[in-house]
Each structure stands twice: as structure tokens, then as C-alpha cells.
Amino acid sequence: MKRLVILGGGESGVGTAILGKKQGYAVFVSDFGKIKKSYQDVLNDYEIKWEDGGHTESLILNADLVMKSPGIPDKAPLIKHLKASNIPVISEMEFAALYTQATLIGITGSNGKTTTTMLMAHILKEAGLKSVAAGNIGDSFAKWVALDDQDYYALEISSFQLDGIEKFAPHIAILTNITPDHLDRYEYEFENYIRSKFRIAENQTEADYLIYDADDEVIVEWLEKHPVRSKLMPFSITKELKQGAYYAQEEINIITDDTRMTMSTKNLEIKGAHNTKNAMAAATASRLLSIRKATIRESLEGFQGVEHRLEYVLKINNVSYINDSKATNVNATFYALDSMSAPTVWIVGGVDKGNDYKDLFPLVNEKVKAIVCLGVDNAKLLHTFSNMVETIIETESMTEAVKIAYKLTDKGDNVLLSPACASFDLFDNYEDRGRQFKNAVRNL
User: Fold this and answer.
1) CA 191/CA 28 separation, integer angstroms
2) What is the mean pLDDT of the chain?
3) Is 115 known as a binding-site position?
């Protein structure tokens, strides 16, 4: 019996453990930290051996195959040791894809991937197809394959998950954009991160498709130097295209294999140029899957957006509170500030992943009236923005940040939580940060 060792007892680890057990592997789960009680119970129910609070190397280095959770960097000593021993170390995406015949739509990018994945899943459901969103959101891909295999998967895939693939190839790959992010995991080399994102297309064949943002110079330049085999389906809001999707005169135009679909963007619930792009990407993929135009139109118009991404929370004293906790990098915050149409008190800060805030300067000058810093170390933010706004204040909790923002507003203003940073200094994750923001706003 082949031995499958899983490093990390979170969602992807436990899902992979269930699938591994069903496929006849001897499975062992090892987590350096603590495995949640709910996940411990699942592993016990399936009679899967596990440990937490540290790794027992003798129980790991005898593996035939190792699946590591995306949170563990390749430079971790244990991973280096495994690779030196020629033991394959793969991601959940790679493992789960081996055991399903489903059509895979893989979605990656620095920003927009969650919204695009949810949009895609929404259209597939509305079309009556047996399908789910999985990967970086919801239940793990492996768990679905093990317990209720679908015909279609809309998979949100991070660069860390792509780092662990060997043969994984989605039929349709969507690359929303590439901006500097997670550079701490890529030796602070942007090129390493770009290469990682493009792994989504590296195993595709001529029968597959790559949908990508033709307005993104990073993507366009990389494709010129590193051609892929899949059929290219670009999308753009600045130029007319012969194949793919483009935006003109408040309409999206989608051209696939000589068929054309047009739809107005006026009725889209989700606003902003970035969401028009997300809609174009999902609609293009849907047309490639031969989903009816009417279904695509109705699905796009009915889609409400994603929690923690430019989520309208409340209006208090004629001030709008907006939760954009999912903005964990500068590019995401750029979109958020760009969509503000009133003077804005901006709550920002957290774990800085090597951020360059230059791109935000024009927007901060134009739209931001005050800045509330929310992080353990705000020195870089204070240094960067002190000369741009009259008021910049440091806070140490979400409740305090929201109370101070409330005092800084006048009627008609916005309060925007768009941190541009990871959340791990003060919060469990960006969802926890967003929920704390919403609770603090409701308690004003």
C-alpha cells in the first residue's frame, strides 16, 4: 500500500486525506501547528492517523507521495529534505485532479480571482450543470472529488497551489491580472511570481483555452516571450479584439469561434472597471462551454458580489461604510480607492508583503481625507503617507479604528477598510478582519 503523507491539517489537507483514503493509500496527516477540533473529528471518523504540534520526520520521510498545504513554503527545511530524498511533493490541485473526469475551469491572478470564481460557479449553477466553486474557497477540491464528484469545477487557485503541480491542466484557465504580491515567498523577485502564475497554462494543450487580461502589460509581455500551447482568449476594456471579449460603449462583446454575444453593463450589480473584467472573463469561459447567452446575461445581472470585497455594510449619519478586507495587496486597494466617489477615510495596514505604495499616491491625493492605520507596525505607512493627508492616526484594534474613522467623517463621506496588507498580525485571516469591521460598524 502506497503511503501518502499530508503536511497541514486544514481544509485542503483534510480533504486530500479523505480522497487518499478512498483511493487506497495509507494516509498520515502531520501539522506543525494545532489541528482544529472539527478537523480532528473528521480524521478520526475516517480512521486516518494524524499528529499536530510538530512533525515526526521518521513518519514523513518514508512517504511515497507528499501533499503539502499551500501555507508551507518550499524553503522550509522539511520540504527541502523531502525533495533531496526524491519524494514527490505536490499540491492538492495536482492530487485531486488525478481522480476526476470533470471539466476544470482554473482561475488565478493577483486580484479578482474570488469574484471571477464565484461568478463562474454562479453561471454554471444557473445553467443547470452539476458544479461547484472549490480550491481556495469553500470546501476543498479533493473533498468534493472524494465525496460528491461534480461535472464542472470552478477552481480558485493561488500561486502557492500552482507551485506544487506537475501534470495539472484545467481545460479553461483564467488569468485575471498579475501585480507584485507574496514576494516574500518568491525571493522578492517579481519574475518568480509571474512564472508561478503562468504554471496554470503550462500543461494545457491546443484543445484548451487561456483567458487573460490583454490590458495587463506583465501578462502580455510574458506571453510574447513564453508562448503557451492553449488557445488565447484575451479580454480588454481599452481595445477592440477579434477573439475573446472587449468593452465598448457600456457593452461587453464576447467573440468565440465566430459567434458573438453582447450585453449591457448597466444592469450589472457589481460595479467598477475591474468587475467588468471579471464578468468578461467568466462570460468568455461560459461561452466556450456552450452555455446559452440568455443564461449568462441573467446570471451576470443577478450576481451580488463577494463578501469582504467592496462590500457595502451600512450608512450611518449619511456616511457609507465599505468592507474591502479582501484587499491584501496594493493593486486590490487601488481598485477600491478608484471606485470611491466621495471623500474617504481610509483604514489601512497589517502585514506588509514588500508593498510599493507609489501607484496609490494620485488616488490618495484625490480621494482620501484621513488615514487610520491598523497594524502592529505602521512605520512604513506613516512615513509614506504623512505628507499627503492632514490626519493620519495609529490604532491597535478594529473597534478603535472604526470609532476614530467615525469621528473623522462628515455627511456624504465614505469609510473604507481596504488594508493593502495581510491580516495575520491582529486577525486570524481577512474574513475575521472583515467581520470585525462589520461588527464594529454595527455597534457604533
Assistant:
1) 35
2) 93
3) yes
